[in-house]
Amino acid sequence: MKIAVASNLALPYASPLKALLGGLVDIWHFSFNAGAIKPDMAFYAGLTAHLGSEASELLMVGDTWRDDIVDAVEARSRAR
How many CB atoms within 10 Å of residue 74? Predict the structure, then answer.
């Protein structure tokens, strides 16, 4: 199992987060690198490509119902 952080976090906060979570995370997928932000479907497409996984194989945990959960489910539905 791979652990990814997929976030709209602003660039200045990425380094401190990486320092804090260090070896716990396999993949970092930030909107400032992805060229799209959640809830844009391109963000989720980039995440699945980054992970080398299908959307149906991902478990999304988030703190924003619309951007993290609803649109992640929509991305999964479109991937089927």
Answer: 14
CA atoms within 13 A on the CB side of 57: 12
Q: How far is residue 65's CA from residue 11's CA, in Å, rounded to a whole number?
A: 23
In three-state secondary structure terms, 16 is: helix
**Cα–Cα distance measured from residue 65 to residue 4, given in angstroms and rounded to the nearest whole number:** 18
Give the residue carrying structure tokens 């649109």.
71
Q: What sign does the CA torsion over 14, 11, 76, 65 have? A: positive
Residues 25 and 5 sit within 8 Å (Cβ to Cβ): yes
Reported as a pLDDT band with limits 50, 70 and 90, residue 78 is low
Spatial distance between the Cα atoms of 57 and 35, rounded to a whole number of angstroms: 23
Reported as a pLDDT band with limits 50, 70 and 90, residue 7 is very high
